[in-house]
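Supplementary notes for students who missed Thursday's class. We covered one full example, reproduced here. Read the sequence, then the structure, then the short commentary at the end.
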Amino acid sequence: MRTGVASIPLDYGTCPKWLFERMTKLSRAIIQMIVSEFGEEELLKRLSDPTWFQSFGSVLAFDWNSSGLTTTVTGAIKQGIRDLEKDLGIFMCGGKGKTSRKTPEQIMQWAYKLSFSQEQADRLVYSSKISAKVDNTAIQDGFQLYHHTFIFTRTGKWTVIQQGMNEKAGQARRYHWLSDNVKDFIEEPHIGISSDIKLKPLNLTSKESENNKKTSTELVTRGYRSLIKDLFLLREKQTRQPSLFNQNKRSKLKILEMPDDKTLPQLTGDLEFTKSKYLDKILFDLHEKEPKNFEQVLMEKGVGPMTVRALSLVSELVYGAKASYEDPARYSFTFGGKDGVPFPVNRPVYDKALDVIERGIKKSQLSRREKEKALRRFTKSF
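Structure (token representation):
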């Protein structure tokens, strides 16, 4: 496996029962040891590490390069620690498909059992919801989320492992979050993003998109009519011209000189969705809510990729507030790269990650034969 980046082709198969039972048993043993030896927060850090997580899946004997690794490994862990949650201090919610939508409900159930305050419970639910909203809406990379796992401790620390699919590309993309790493939910919050495809998505989590987000919020709060007028002008411009490229100098509308189409998607396609009959109503409702910042804009009911993209386009084309189109998957280099890109390999961190999982196998309550098999798979995975 290449350090930090995982190729994750879509896999529509299922995990055999005999294998899943063994994965559950092995993951249970390793998780128990890690928590006993290093504590629950160390487990969160390891699970939030894209490279470690991928290697852990290999140790459990699942296909290392399959999208099913994410769903199956998290499922095996959840099943493996069942009835041990309070002893371990680790609580898992969510999963694949319909189960992912039950995450807030499951968080609240655990919060009640653990006597959390309403504020603590609400904070965890919010963290779960906004992490999903960011990866589906603030980052528009063509990967639709279908899996969301939220793992937390008694102290309120948490990690998110979620995955999206792009059926046209036949690939999946996995997003990792860790609460300790999140200083701002909408500015570079990820520990890592595993993907084998480099894209040019609208990336509003980048620091370079700060002005675009501020302008988008101002567009919503300053006046609904003014915003609709800006959208109308863009729609009219698209109707008269097949593309806005190389036309902006002649336009009465103040539109920036745009980068080439390798950096920014063709605006003809981008503007087509602004004709949606639902967009105006969503923008009106959003204006009525008077959001104070872009995070609140993002979390309002009904606001999805279409609304955010419309606001971003008006901000950039009319008011000059550029958005970033750099793929955040570059942050998936958890340990660094051999050529020093994006940063030199952090050897102590790398060695610690190896040590945690290796000691977990050796100290687990498994037969000698099972331990040897797991260690061989572990050695091959790096």
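Commentary. The CA atoms of residues 221 and 290 lie 6 Å apart. The radius of gyration is 23 Å. If anything here is unclear, bring it to office hours.
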